[in-house]
Amino acid sequence: MIRLEARPEPSRTYKWASPIIAVAATVAIGFLLFPAMGKNPFAAFHAFFVKPVDSLYGVAELLLKASPLMLIATGLAAGYRANVWNIGAEGQLTMGAIAGGGVALALHGVDSPLVLPAMLVAGVAGGVAWAAVPAWLRTRFNANEILTSLMLVYVATLVLSLLVHDAWRDPEGFNFPQSKMFSESALYPVLLEGTRLNLGFPIALAVVAAGWVFMQKSFTGYQMRVAGLAPAAAHYAGISAPRTVWLAMLIGGGCAGLAGVGEVAGPLGQLQPSVSPGYGFAAIIVAFVGRLHPVGIVFASLLMSLLYLGGESAQLNLALPSAVTGLFQGTLLFFLLAADVFIHYRVRRTRTVRRTA
Amino acid sequence: METLAQLFILTLAAGTPLVFAALGELVTEKSGVLNLGVEGMMLVGAVVAFMVASMSGSPWLGIAAGMAAGAATSLIFGAIALSLMANQVATGLALSLFGVGLSAFVGLDYVSVVIAGITPLAIPGLSDLPVVGQLLFGHNPLVYLSFALFAAVQWFLFRTRAGLVLRAVGESPQSAHAIGYPVIAIRYAAVLFGGACAGLAGAYLSVAYTPLWVEGMVAGRGWIALALVVFATWKPWRVLAGAYLFGGVTLAQFQAQALGSTIPSQYLAMLPYLATVVVLAVISRDAVTIRLNAPASLGKPFHPGA
Predict the structure, then answer these.
(1) Mutate to test the interface with A, among B96, B109, B277 (most CBs of A within 10 A)
(2) Largest Cα–Cα separation, chain B
(3) Angle of the B265-284 helix axis to the A145-165 helix axis, nearest 10
(4) N or C: fewer beta carbons within 10 Å in chain A?
(5) At what angle do helices B2-30 and B141-159 cross, to 10 degrees?
(6) What average pLDDT does the structure give for chain A?
(7) DSSP β-bridge partners for residue A4
(8) A189: phi > 0 → left, psi -120 to 50 → alpha, else beta; which?
């Protein structure tokens, strides 16, 4: 008989081994899956994990796509540590893109170095405002933030659709549902000539670092961690539960909003009906795979970014649907959660006890 | 009168997927397990049902396959959240994300395929009766199935010994375990039932309601179903009422379009989501009622070896 026995203390080794086991298992599943689809697994592996990053442009793309992921995941991780489950980052990202993009359109043609900062502020404010709704509903009405934040994702997407189909549509855009292209002053400057890597990447890294300082070194961050680990103790120590919820939601919303501006001021350069290929949801996986820790989140966001690029590359090179990315993302999270059991438990083989007469 | 009857029929049709999914989730939650993967299980159910219906030519075979697929995906949740005692919220989220990816992936070749779906009943004589015939005999066969499911769930939970045991497991798994009930096995059964119901809900959408397959076609109904269970304070009859309420709200956008409204469709499309948020807030406001009605061990992993 095999059974799980609780460890006296959570294993630190397994806490960090578990993501590696999960990645290995996901790759192994890929090796089984690709032949089933009639593809050479080695060619597929190459197309998925090597081809996208075998050039400077590819590496820049990797960092470009990792930026929103690490940004959002940092914000979400702060919330998850406090046991506040914001899963509506995709909506907060969309609202950030709308607010930041709105500023860019309002200041169209204005050539001032202040346009971009104004957009960033507006974008963060947009994300914060959208996250404030579930926070208010949770603290004031006790409404589950998982469900409300997710419902607002759909609403945000529809608001964006409304705007690009109507009020903000480019009059010279051949009736496509898109806004005007932003002015040069409303775009993130490109960092590496010949690539799309832009200012969003250092901004994301700075936020990750700030997030680490806040959660590990500040008193407020400490209070949030206590509230997540031991709600009863937190209550007894006088840590305000509503304040924790508000902080957790708003930090997540602000980071997601900033990521949203980054998309429209970066690779997109305009507002479109869809401003994100599901970064807000993928960032949930990034936060978990990165163990809610900033260093882990940076690595996990690179991995998740590679999955996005790999999906595109597999579509180009192997005629595989890019939806395979979503499949791998989900599989990875499953394996991670399964492997996490060894943090708290160890496997014991129990011998059948021999009874002496 | 005629239009009113039509509206009634359409409301039931729109609410039915929510009835299926929410009743399934209600049983799962009554056993103390919170499975947030309803959206994912519905999508997998929808795509598998559509594929099987398209390949076999039999929509009913598709429905059965959708249920089986929903149950199979819920088994992944069970393995991780029940056997390996992972965080149920995270595992449920993973299931939803996985379901979105998996369904988009396998359904790619079926996007513009046309199938013969399950159409509303037409009982000669009965369905042709004025008004009454329509109201009683003009629904999709699956709508009647949802009534039956409601009756079955209500009866099972509150009138059978097995239902009592299931509720006991949800309230206090430790006690149920001490008396000798297999807590994990019972929870597996509840999760599988919830998965099959979510699969059925998805299958209804892709084989009977629309009938077609589009990526992400469940469009948040899985999450609305989760909200409905809270809204219903874990009571089956209130699930039924809530589902038709939301069905009616969903309908508003199509009705307005049909009536030539000039309001942009996006506003009306927002309604079900906004309504969910508002209703959830209003119901949850009474924290005591929620705490008294929610299964006491909801979302907490159980380790029998301890």
Answers:
(1) B277
(2) 64
(3) 160
(4) C
(5) 40
(6) 91
(7) A347
(8) beta
Residue A265: pLDDT band by 50, 70, 90 thresholds?
very high
Question: How distant is the Cα of B98 from the closest Cα of chain A, in angstroms?
Answer: 4
- Is residue B220 within 8 A of residue A87, CB to CB? The reply is no
What the block records as the tokens of B39 is 């959206």
Q: Count CB atoms within 10 A of the CB of residue A56.
A: 13
What's the rounded Cα separation, in Å, for the pair B49 and B46? 5
Residue B164 contacts A, CB cutoff 8 Å: no
Shortest distance, CA A77 to any CA of chain B (angstroms): 13
Identify the band that residue B114 occupies on the pLDDT scale cut at 50, 70 and 90. Answer: confident
Which chain B residues are within 8 Å of A337, Cβ to Cβ?
80, 84, 86-87, 90-91, 94
DSSP E strands: which ranges in chain A? 2-6, 345-349
CA distance B210 to B216: 13
Residue to mutate among A87, A98, A136, A147, with most B CBs inside 10 A, is A147
Burial B226-249 (b: 16+ CB within 10 A, else e): bbbbbbbbbbbebbbebbbbbbbb
Count the neighbouring beta carbons within 10 Å of the beta carbon of residue A131.
33
- The confidence band for B298, taking pLDDT boundaries of 50, 70 and 90, is very high
b (16+ CB within 10 A) / e for B129-147: eeeebbeebbbbebbebbe
Helix H or strand E encompassing A91 = helix A89-106
Supply the mean pLDDT for chain B: 90
Q: Supply φ then ψ for residue B213, to 5 degrees.
A: -115, 125
pTM: 0.92
Could you tell me which residues are beta bridge partners of residue A348? A3
pLDDT digits (tens, 9 = 90+) for A187-228: 999 998 889 999 999 999 999 999 999 988 999 999 999 998
pLDDT beyond 90 at B146: yes
* Dihedral angle computed from the Cα positions of residues A136, A138, A143 and A146, in that order, rounded to the nearest 10 degrees: 110
Residue B166 near residue B30 (C-beta atoms within 8 A)? yes
Residue B160 CA to residue B178 CA, distance in Å, equals 21
Could you tell me where the DSSP H helices lie in chain B? 2-30, 38-56, 59-77, 88-106, 132-137, 141-159, 161-171, 173-179, 183-203, 221-231, 236-258, 265-284, 287-293
Whether the CB-CB separation of B289 and A141 falls below 8 Å is answered with no
Query: Which residue's structure tokens are 């939806």?
Result: A323
Question: Could you tell me the two tokens for A33?
Answer: 């899956």
Tell me the C-alpha distance between A159 and A92, whole Å: 12
* pLDDT for res A352: 60
**B278 CB within 8 Å of a chain A CB:** no
Answer whether B246's CB lies under 8 Å from B15's CB. Answer: yes
The contacts of residue B110 (CB under 8 Å, 6+ apart) are B47, B50, B51, B54, B213
B229, closest residue in chain A (CA to CA): A147
Determine, for residues A159 and B266 on separate chains, whether the beta-carbon distance falls below 8 Å.
yes
Q: How far is A327 from chain B (nearest CA, A)?
A: 4
